[in-house]
Design a protein that fits this description.
- The chain is an all-alpha fold.
- It has one domain: Up-down Bundle (Ferritin).
- 73% of the residues lie in helices and 0% in strands.
- The protein has 9 helices and no strands.
- α1 runs antiparallel to α7, α4 packs antiparallel against α5 and α6 packs across α8.
- The longest helix is centred in the last third of the chain and has 54 residues.
């Protein structure tokens, strides 16, 4: 297939949007938690602003990929991909700013913290020194996961037509990204593209495990410190107060023998 034909295929895949895009099994299992997150306007605002930051950072990373790749076709595709990601960041930021202005006077919005991870997870993306097949496999896995997650989010914000329309538009782009990365991976590495995809999935799963383990370790550490503070410290505090009551108050007189003895040092 020629370069022009490859480009036409990649462009035409943007309109291929499945009627039913399924989320990952873990996301489907956690659907009640996602529904709880999106049901509250403050948490919805936090998610939108977080998505804006993630999409913008991902766009910058893919721009870097367009700079370093030696493949002219991938350079054009990466550039369009980066433009899409930056546009998604603008959409999420504008919608978040609109919600923030609408609800600023109603109640204070807490912008720190994020109940659930979202977006692509492109914060694990490393550009420099990565061959094209590794980057394409990672992007394909990330975009496929994002497409399924955004399809679920589209259903969960049915009460918000503006936000739903944003997810509709972004979902079409995510499907395009998912298709072109897989197609280009089969072109760049025709004999090992399946192995590269499985390796990218395993790496993504390992990174998710590390995040969960770190969060769990933080929770366990907080619980242990709380137990130490409320269970072990009070007995020592009680013993210290008891010992303090036995001590005489005020200054203690120096024995005469010590007063007449010459000092052995200045201390």
């Amino acid at each position: 297939m020629t370069t022009a034909q490859e480009w036409i295929y990649a462009k035409s895949s943007r309109v291929i949007v499945p009627a039913v895009m399924k989320a990952a099994p873990l996301d489907r299992l956690m659907r009640p938690v996602h529904q709880w997150v999106w049901a509250d306007r403050d948490r919805r605002l936090r998610k939108l602003l977080t998505f804006a930051e993630v999409e913008t950072d991902g766009g910058r990373d893919i721009l870097r990929a367009a700079e370093v790749t030696p493949d002219p076709l991938l350079r054009r595709l990466y550039l369009e991909h980066a433009i899409d990601e930056l546009h998604h960041g603008d959409l999420f930021h504008e919608r978040g700013a609109t919600l923030l202005r609408a609800h600023r006077s109603a109640r204070r919005v807490l912008l720190d913290g994020n109940p659930l991870p979202g977006g692509h997870g492109l914060d694990d993306l490393r550009i420099d020194g990565q061959p094209d097949h590794t980057l394409l496999a990672y992007l394909h896995v990330a975009e496929k996961a994002a497409a399924g997650r955004f399809a679920m989010y589209r259903e969960l914000v049915a009460d918000d037509p503006q936000t739903r329309a944003i997810f509709e538009e972004i979902l079409r782009d995510e499907v395009f990204h998912m298709h072109y990365t897989y197609k280009q991976l089969t072109r760049v590495s025709p004999g090992a593209y399946r192995r590269h995809v499985w390796h990218a999935r395993a790496k993504r799963l390992w990174n998710r495990y590390l995040r969960v383990a770190a969060a769990l370790a933080a929770v366990i550490g907080n619980v242990m410190l709380t137990v130490v503070y409320f269970v072990l410290v009070p007995p020592f505090a009680w013993l210290a107060k008891r010992s303090q009551r036995r001590e005489p108050t005020g200054w203690s007189p120096i024995p005469p023998a010590r007063q007449q003895a010459p000092p052995k040092s200045q201390y």
